[in-house]
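In this section we walk through a basic example: taking a raw amino acid sequence and producing a predicted 3D structure, encoded as discrete structure tokens. The instruction is simple. Fold the sequence below.
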Amino acid sequence: MKLSFDDLGAVTGELNVFHSPYSDFFRNKTQKSIKQALQYLQGQIVLNERGNMTNIEKVVPDCNHQSLQHFISNSQWDEEGVISKIQRQVSELIGNPVHGSVHLDESGFIKDGENSVGVKRQYCGRFGKVDNCQVGLFLGYAFWSRRTLIDKRLYLPDDWANDPVRRERCGVPAWVTFKMKAELGLEMLLKARKRGVPFAWVGMDCFYGQQPWFLDSLDHEGFLYIADVPSDTRVWLERPEVKAPKRKGNRGRHPTRKHVIEGEPEPIEVLKLVEELTDDAWEHIFLRDSERKEIWCDMACLRIYQVRDELPGPESWLILRKDDNGEKKYQLSNASPNTRISRLAEMSCSRYWIERAFEDAKGEVGMADYEVRGWLGWHHHMTMVLLAMLFLLILQMKWKDKAPMMTIQDVREILEVILPRKRITKKEIIEIIKRKHKARESARKSHHKRNSKSN
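The resulting token sequence is shown next.
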């Protein structure tokens, strides 16, 4: 590694230079929050502990928790402008129309109580179970191992979307209506394409891959996709013959709804296909490099017909993977019939990098560490998460020639040491502790009040 003290000396200036082009998005006719935006950004990067406003106040010079709370929860700044510029910068930094990919994924955020916007008992993918949580939809970008998140949506469950009292309490805008997760995902994809983000394909997990209408919508919009699907997904290896049955008797209308004719084969579960394929159907193929070794798998790619309402749907690729760790993967893609297996393998393994992007977001910039309840606060916090991730990626790319093995975590650890930190006085720490105790007492009284009402 050739990284030197001189390379690290200008880091504080780097943060200011990075933040400056975003300044206009943090001001409006009546107020500006440029300073608070920079402080919040620095706090996300340097904090090792829970990233609430009080902890940011303790480490970032010249800031206080009240101004930060107002910046996140109430200040009217242009988050869509920030997102649009993030996408332009990501496109310039790592955008690639041939090997770049975007990925749709979600993350759950465990929350106590029922007052945080969109919270309810629902599936939390982060922990693999149903829990009291909020669910966010995210769009990630990957070019080989370079990755980051570029857009976000908060999923608002149907009962929340149709509850005017809770909507008003959490500041949900009037234009927001209930939308399925996949609808929110399609929205983000169309926006990214409109903004010129260059990508070759869209990746997604089983939740989206098992929604035929969504896959058909992607195909209709001209997106190339690769989608994980469950092991019980059924497909046809050959297109079965279909036709409308003959009318029975001479009365009534002629049937128009087509059915698979009797005697044609039933669709087969993809899990059974793995068991039935002969050895020569599989190819041992390289997937990607890891920090310790090359990752290979056994892969078989078949042309199949998807099932649509018990009828044959579009002809597609079925990608079957047996990884070295014993895990089996099943994926569908609308890639053209002449696509090479090496290209399908590249597409097949690309979602790994978005899973790593979520690890970066949660581990390095406090994605899950927020203390806001309202609609505006959630979206503002997640926007700042995306901005912080971009800054880490820029430094990683800048230092890659001198430190080829530099990770996002390494960059964050460097910044934690190099960026200026606030020196807390005895008086300030006493005031912070007093404030925390007051907040605890208030929460305790509120809890007792709720319990007394329920009894």
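Looking at the output, two observations stand out. The chain is about 40% helix and 20% strand. The chain has a mean pLDDT of 89. In the next section we compare this with other chains.
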